[in-house]
Write a structure and sequence with these properties.
The complex is a heterodimer of chains A (33) and B (150).
Chain A lengths: L10 H11 L2 E7 L3
Chain B lengths: L8 H10 E7 L5 H4 L7 E5 L5 E6 L4 H18 L3 H14 L6 H16 L3 H13 L4 H5 L7
Antiparallel strand pairs in B: 2-3
Classes of the chains: A alpha+beta (33), B alpha+beta (150).
Chain lengths: 33, 150
């Protein structure tokens, strides 16, 4: 099992992967501090 | 979320298997404005075209997060009339996380999805009866109240 969540940091990449893999997207707006 | 929820093995496994996770700063342009983000964490479920279908604001523990993300995936399918796929997510959520705060909405949406895929009103009445039995007083039980008459 992987040891961390595989976060994308680019919306364009996330959208491309979502289309290619047939998945939905979680968009997390966070406070980087 | 970074300190408590995201490091949980169940969360890592669920998120890496089930969806594409992307994070941006709360003030990142143009997304913060596009999605009208006012607080963190704000978690938004999108379809592969970038359209919003579900959101939550505020901290969630692991089980609540997985249940909420499952509900978000179900709503992505529901909103696109993909009722079988929506039902698959809803059934898993209700089986694995019946005590979660997402469960009552999932039960409501399960009844509606069954109705929309069969045009049989019985699932709506059954949804109300289960909501009344399992989640009395919940917001989604109140929303299903008219279905008792079907």
């Amino acid at each position: 099992m992987e040891s961390k969540v595989n976060w994308e940091t680019s919306m364009d990449t996330a959208l491309s992967r979502a289309r290619a893999e047939g998945k939905s997207i979680l968009l997390d707006f966070f406070n980087p501090g | 979320m970074d300190a408590v929820t995201y490091p949980e093995p169940a969360v890592i496994d669920f998120m890496n298997r089930s969806l594409i996770a992307v994070r941006v700063a709360y003030n990142a342009k143009p997304y913060a404005d596009d999605f009208n983000v006012k607080w963190t964490p704000t978690l938004v479920s999108l379809d592969s075209g970038g359209k919003e279908h579900h959101r939550t604001v505020g901290f969630l523990q692991a089980e609540e997060l997985i249940a909420s993300l499952s509900l978000g995936m179900a709503k992505v399918h529901f909103d696109q009339d993909q009722f079988d796929s929506a039902l698959a997510h809803l059934e898993k959520l209700l089986q694995a996380y019946p005590k979660s705060s997402s469960a009552p909405e999932a039960m409501f949406l399960r009844g509606v999805s069954l109705y929309k895929s069969t045009h049989d009103p019985k699932p709506l009445k059954q949804a109300y009866e289960r909501l009344e039995a399992e989640y009395p007083g919940d917001e989604w039980t109140k929303r299903a109240y008219p279905y008792r008459l079907l």
